[in-house]
Amino acid sequence: MLNDVTFGQYYPVKSFVHNMDARAKIVFMIAYIVAIFLAKNFFGLLAVTAFLIFVVLLSRVPFGRVLRSVKMILFLIIFTAILNLFFYSGESSYQPLVEWWIITITWESIVNMVFLALRLFLLVMGTSVLTLTTTPVALTDGIESLLTPLKWIKFPVHELALIMSIALRFIPTLMDETNRIVAAQKARGADFETGGLIKRAKAVVPILIPLLVSAFRRAEDLGDAMDARCYSGAKGRTKYKKLVFTWRDLLGLLFLGGLITGVVFLNIYLGGKFSILGYFL
Amino acid sequence: MRIVAKDLTYTYNPKSPFATQALKGADLVIEEGEFFGIIGHTGSGKSTFVQHLNALIRLTGGSLTVGDYDLSDKKCKFLELRSKVGMVFQYPEYQLFAETVEKDVMFGLKNFCKGMSEEEKQKAVREAIETVDLDYEDVKDRSPFELSGGQKRRAAIAGVIVTKPEVLILDEPAAGLDPLGKQEIMQLLHSIHGGWCKTVIIVSHDMDEIAENCTRAAVFSEGKVVMEGAPAEIFRRSDELIALGLDIPVTAKCARILKERGIEIDTDFTCDDFISKVLALYARSGGVSKADTGAARAEKADAQGGAGDAQ
Fold first, then answer.
1. Does domain B3-243 have CATH number 3.40.50.12280?
2. What is the residue extent of each domain of chain A?
3. Where are the domains of chain B?
4. Given CB atoms, is A193 within the 8 Å cutoff of chain B?
5. Among B111, B113, B153, which would you mutate to test the A interface (most chain A Cβ atoms within 10 Å of its Cβ)?
6. How many Å apart are CA B134 and CA B154, to the nearest integer?
7. Interface pTM (ipTM) of the complex?
8. pTM check: above 0.95
9. What is d(CA B107, CA B88) in angstroms, rounded to the nearest whole number?
10. Strand B35-40 to strand B85-88: parallel, antiparallel, or no bridges (unpaired)?
């Protein structure tokens, strides 16, 4: 029942992308998002798409796996797309296609809708490549390392990273626990699949309460275990796995720099997103 | 209800790198009235197997019938089946959720017996709580989270047996309990076995528990049933069990040590039988047979200590 929640779960294979430094990958990711939002026309997005496909091929994660993460937010994409289609009121140089009540659909709003949906799609695909190819531990280590400057203003970077890694670490544990509790309650005749909204919401109570109780129990145990090992925060703490910046990361960043430059050039020479209409109409 | 499983296969997370085949063609028949033991390593497929029996895991390969219910049939009444095949998971106390013990125990009844009157339900709850040896008046209005560990477990078991299932499956029912608690749980199972509960199936790591309590047992290994029969037959093949990385009962350990010294003992590996056979041997060799139980118990303690030393 809950096995579908593999959204962004680490996919254990060996590849160029998997071997990159987590910090580089995070920077990479931010630059990738910047590239998506820099692109003003479809050619720019096309370049980003081509880049994404290349990275996914390089990471050896099956496309289906990456696409599955989009499934989670498909509703959001469709919702924003529809809103944009109906209520986008750009300046149209063409005849509106539909005008009814407060809804106007123009060629521009269609283009705008496709453009936005594509952007969101690329955004989610890209971010899931990051989580699919980086272990949660490496990811939090990377974030901690990147946030180091904040330590100068006494921001508890290490603690933040620890909270994140604990939260990530316990997702599968709690997921297992949930499955077990669901099975136990099902064995006692609980029914989670039929009935109206209120009945279904009520049916969740026998799962949530034991889950909460066990989460608190685990938290307490973990706290005790950390105390027993004399955990005292970041001070004097060393890392088991050190992040190393290698030629792969340099290569990747150079490549991404190329992508951003390319997108900017496409923006300058090929006009805005609506110019595509000029080719067809 | 007779349980017949043929060539059962099951794979977790199919078509992904996390795919693990838990069952690779398991065949097993459990007759009505048995006190059945299921032995196996973690990951041998035993938990997956028992979860098939009340359709918590849907059949994907092979065939399985439980009484008149054919689980390969899509139209099979799964809810009805679950009321007849009770399932007590490992650490069942973690499934408690209601404000009071009474409400928690009633949960199953509310789900299964929708037509039942309020008084009948209350009566059934009272009976279930008393069956597991808790004081109904004392615990019924208390929060299940206030109870002690052993009491919580018994309250959780009450929540399963309240519908009087014909088959009761327990996954490691005694795990994490002290010796007295273990004994009490086993006594509880024997007291309900043979009444409305016709078949008891326990999944266990504790070989002594299997040797002492079960009428028949099966050993799971790598998704298959590799041994099946009365505990005496299974533990006679203790070499094979050890080769599989499994434990053997204390009595079997003692029998092995004696065998190394050239003394063969024909026993069914329950403590009582083992001790009486040893005592008979002792008497025959010229010693004095100590019939009174106090002495027998002391002997048993010695035997266990000896096994421990040899380990």
1. no
2. 22-280
3. 3-243, 250-310
4. no
5. B111
6. 8
7. 0.82
8. no
9. 14
10. unpaired
